């Protein structure tokens, strides 16, 4: 309960911040949870006009597999993600960084591996594995305002 100091009235605010922590949940189940949470948020927006923002934070070592999973389920999920920020440094015990080192046998390839561009790409790839990526998750079809307008118009016809 909150108190308005000017009027002396008590009021209750709705909960406006939720945290869901899923740890080492595998990617298909995580995407199922995201779909469920997104549909719940959309329902609250349509029924109570409660705006929302849904964000997903995960280690950058899992970003590629998450994006690949979204692409394979793309037509059925209707979910759009947008990378907002990457926080450095971050180490997750659930998803340890992967190191991509290639071994080549030819002499020409060995010389190219000593080049500045190759070494800098490998170093950048190494550093990127130690990040926490923040994605904004939104429905891919209609925006929130379009859905609210549709609901208001359908209520007028009834």
Briefly, what is this?
GO terms for molecular function: glycosyltransferase activity. The chain has a domain of 91 residues.
Model description:
By secondary structure, the chain is of the alpha+beta class. The protein has a domain of 91 residues. It contains six helices and five strands; from the N terminus they run ββαβααβααβα. A three-stranded antiparallel beta sheet has the order 3-5-4, with helices on one face. A two-stranded antiparallel ribbon has the order 1-2. Helix 1 crosses helix 6. The chain starts with a strand and ends with a helix. One of its GO terms (molecular function) is glycosyltransferase activity. This is GPI mannosyltransferase 4. Keywords: Glycosyltransferase, Transferase.
Would you spell out the secondary-structure blueprint of this structure?
Blueprint: E1 2-3, E2 10-11, H1 27-48, E3 54-59, H2 63-72, H3 74-77, E4 79-87, H4 107-113, H5 116-128, E5 132-139, H6 144-157
Antiparallel strand pairs: 1-2, 3-5, 4-5
Helix pairs in contact: 1-6
- Order of strands across the widest beta sheet? 3-5-4
Number of helices: 6
Q: Could you give the order of the helices and strands?
A: EEHEHHEHHEH
Distance between the termini: 36 Å
Which spans have pLDDT < 50 for at least 5 consecutive residues? Answer: none
How would you sum up the major sheet? 3 strands, antiparallel
Q: Tell me roughly what share of residues is in helical segments.
A: 40-55%
Structure summary, number of beta strands: 5
Q: Name the average pLDDT.
A: 77
Describe the oligomeric state of these chains in a short phrase: single chain
Beta-strand percentage? Answer: 15-25%
Could you tell me the radius of gyration in angstroms? 23 Å
Keywords: Glycosyltransferase, Transferase
Protein name: GPI mannosyltransferase 4
GO molecular function, one term: glycosyltransferase activity
Organism: Bactrocera latifrons
């Amino acid at each position: 309960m909150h108190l308005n100091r000017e009027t002396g009235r008590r009021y209750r605010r709705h909960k406006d911040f939720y945290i869901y922590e899923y740890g080492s949940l595998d990617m298909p189940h995580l995407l199922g949870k995201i779909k469920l949470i997104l549909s719940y948020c959309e329902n609250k927006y349509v029924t109570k006009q409660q705006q929302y923002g849904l964000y997903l934070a995960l280690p950058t070592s899992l970003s590629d597999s998450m994006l690949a999973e979204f692409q394979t389920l793309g037509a059925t999920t209707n979910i759009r993600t947008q990378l907002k920020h990457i926080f450095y440094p971050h180490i997750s015990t659930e998803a340890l960084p992967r190191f991509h080192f290639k071994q080549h046998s030819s002499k020409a390839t060995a010389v190219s591996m000593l080049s500045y561009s190759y070494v800098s790409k490998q170093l950048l790839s190494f550093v990127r594995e130690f990040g926490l990526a923040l994605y904004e998750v939104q429905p891919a079809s209609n925006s929130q305002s379009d859905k609210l307008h549709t609901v208001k118009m359908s209520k007028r016809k009834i």
